[in-house]
Structures are given as C-alpha cells and as structure tokens.
Amino acid sequence: MIAVSVTGMVLSTMPIGDYDKRLVILTKERGKITAFAKGARRQSSAFLACSQPFSFGEFMLYEGRSSYNLVSVEISNYFEELRNDLEAAYYGVYFCEISDYFSHENEDGTHNLKLLYQSLRALSQESIIKPLVRAVFELKILAINGVAPQVFGCVKCGKKSGFSHFNSEAGGMLCTDCLKNAAKSIKITDAAIYTMQYIISSSIEKLYTFTVSKEVMSELKTCVKDYKEIYIDKKMKSLDLLEKLFGY
Length: 248
Known about the structure:
Strand content: 15-25%
Strand order of the largest sheet: 1-2-3-5-4
Structural class: alpha+beta
Radius of gyration: 20 Å
Largest sheet: 5 strands, mixed, barrel
Number of helices: 8
Number of strands: 8
Shape: elongated
C-alpha cells in the first residue's frame, strides 16, 4: 500500500462491522474519497473523535485499489460550536451533503473544501443570519461547479442593462424584451441582483462579510431555491429535516 497525506474534512460516517467506520472525506488534493477507520467506534480508539462530520485536518492514509485506510490524523478544527448548536449542526450537515453531491474522486477539491470550511465558520457568527449563510453557500457552490445563473446580463439576448426579472427555467436574468415569452419570472430589486453578482464573483474569503435587508433576503431565498431545484437533481435528506425543524 502507498501512504498519502491529504488535507480534508469528514463529510459523513457510517458504522462498519462491530468497531470500524467508513468515512467520506472531501480533500483538497484528491476530491471526495472513502476511507476506513479501523476500531474507530471503540472508546479507547485514537480515531474516535476525528471520525465525526465537520472534522478538518491532515489525514494520513494507505491507498488501496478502491478505498483508503486511515493511519493517523491531526485535526485542526472540530467545529465544536456547531455540535453545541442544534440548528447550526443541521445546516452544517446539509452543507456537507451538497458538497458530497458536487465532489468527485481524483479531482481538485480546493474550492469546494474552502467554501465548506468558510461556510461552517460563518454559521457560528452572530453577525450573519443562518438563512443568508445558506443562500450564499448554495449560490456559490453552483458557481464553483459551473452551473450558476446568469445575473450579469440577459440570459437570452446578452443585454447588459434593463433586466429586472429572474427566471430559473431560463437560467437567470431576463430583460424587458425577452421577458414577454417567459413564464414564471420573478421581479427583483437592483439590490438583490447586486447581491447575487457579488456572491458569484467574489472570492470565498469575502463571502460572509455583508448583511442584507429582509426584502433582499426574501428575494435571494426565492431565486436561489427555485434555481437550485432545477439544477440539482437530488433530494437532500438533511434539507427536509432542516426545513421541518427550523423553516427557511
């Protein structure tokens, strides 16, 4: 077996046998991988704490044909503040599930991992409401993976001005002329358009540095939710629980 070192975060875990765990880890170097932590469910195991979702750090692994075996790990952030806040924890699990959906093995996972890390940090900040963190995360991960809506011009004709309606089925903003033949369009404010433009174009480090009005939050939530339901073809189990318990 070949020993490899990766930087990553545990997205999910599953018990295997009597004492082992199967980990899904989003890594910077190799994208999403599966690793087995032997004995991780024993109370005396060195892997007991690190084999939990949100655990971020350096993982030393033995590489097999179709999976990895965990050798050692150095965790730099357990995100304990999320584990102690039920609502934040549910948001975090949802973010991990979407990250799992968009991540694949043997690809560069740098941007997906960085977005997930910064978004989990934002969940613990009192200065930004959790529904805004969710909308920012959802829109940015769509952008990172090449399926963001067109919000910098009319998606039909390319006109760079005169657009004020968002249409999820069309794929973004529509100008007044192109609006005539499009159903289910939502009129939104310039502030909401600018907010979406900022989220899509800004670096991940600058994403969680702003707040919005209730009106903009409502428009942003509606646009992102409608668009995401078209372009993500999987029902997230964690999202059902999140919305039932805390709404959106």
